[in-house]
Design a protein that fits this description.
Layout lengths: L14 H13 L4 H7 L6 H14 L2 E6 L2 E6 L3 H17 L3 H10 L5 H13 L1
Antiparallel strand pairs: 1-2
Helix pairs in contact: 1-3, 2-3
Amino acid sequence: MPLNIQDIAMKKLTEQEELIMTSLWDLEKAFVKDIVANITQNLHYNTVSTVVRKLENKGFISHESFGNTHRYFPKISKDQYSEFVMEQESKKFFDGSYKEMVSYFAEKEKISQQDLEEILQLIKNK
């Protein structure tokens, strides 16, 4: 069951941590061997196990015990983490302005006119 991000000391995750969290969000509950099989990078079982323990220590995941084996699950949702990261990045690079962020991507031609029109439609429908 996802927690509010205020319930843990939210920090941006490392690339490996994000990779494993993405796998866990997809799987919902998983043993380390399931995570290893699901990730796109070729990481050794011990590496994944170490990162999983770090994620648990940071409060991002928890586990259920089955004897000596643990099945892990996320404590925060992908949407909660995405919102946190977007807020942090917008503060870091765009003084917290989403308008400036969208303008940046439009100027760098990373977002199309059609995408902008769809964003405007989403805003109008809210």
